[in-house]
Amino acid sequence: MFRCTDEVSYWLHENEERKQQIAVLKETISELQEELRNHRHRIKVLELQVRFPHGLSRLWVNHQQQSFQLCCVSQTTHAAQLTFLDLWRCPTRGSQIPCVDFLLLSLLSITPPSEIQHARSCPIDCASIYYNGVRRSGLYTVVPSMAGMSMEVYCDMDTDGGGWTVIQRRVDGSVNFDRSWRDYRDGFGDLHSEFWLGNDHIHDLSTQGDYSLRIDMEDWGNRRNSTQHTS
């Protein structure tokens, strides 16, 4: 009888601690979302101010810095939300509190105290997003280390292990690829369908280190082939 009562008291205490830790996660996510809203507001103000010629150079630099910080806060908020969701997938019983502790440590590791540390946590390509635990293909914001400017890219997290930054996709002919050199320099199309990422963007990504180029092709007879080249 006493043993049963003690066990019930123990689990009530454990559940209460878990509620408190969930509250900490909610508060942290709320703070990150507020910071994200503030950065968006600052970027909007800079976009309005940059229309005037006076101080154009200084405002453009500020706009770049705010865009960079917005990317970092967005990625950190996304990671915090994933951590919160993972909390509910923790095993029950005796292992639930260590699991919560581990997730809290993970959350602390992705919410460093300074803006410089925020910048270091920003992904430089789709491979870094993949290695941070993201496994869903889609659009993500990356900040190439040499460029310092954020860009939106499509990440393929399914093909051959995942982590591929897609630089071109042609599927149904919905986008005209007969373009000027300026279009190929800056990029064109729709990242959701057909597009060319842009020579400048590809250069910023590929000069960060050694990369592999993978080409997947399919003919009108649904015959597929692929080739891969490593730098």
TrEMBL record:
Q: Name one GO biological process term.
A: blood coagulation
- Native species: Stegastes partitus
Q: What is this protein called?
A: Angiopoietin-related protein 7-like
The places in or outside the cell where this protein is found are: Secreted
Q: What is its main location?
A: secreted
Instruction: Check the record and name the NCBIfam families matching this protein.
Output: GGGWT_bact (NF040941)
Domain called Fibrinogen C-terminal: residue spans: 117-231
Give the superkingdom in one word.
Eukaryota
Q: Name one GO cellular component term.
A: extracellular region
Gene3D superfamilies in the record: Gamma Fibrinogen, chain A, domain 1 (3.90.215.10)
Spell out the PROSITE patterns in the cross-references: FIBRINOGEN_C_2 (PS51406)
Per the UniProt record, the lineage of the source organism begins with: Eukaryota, Metazoa, Chordata, Craniata, Vertebrata
Provide the alphabetized UniProt keywords: Coiled coil, Disulfide bond, Glycoprotein, Secreted, Signal
Which segments of the protein form a coiled coil according to its record? 15-49
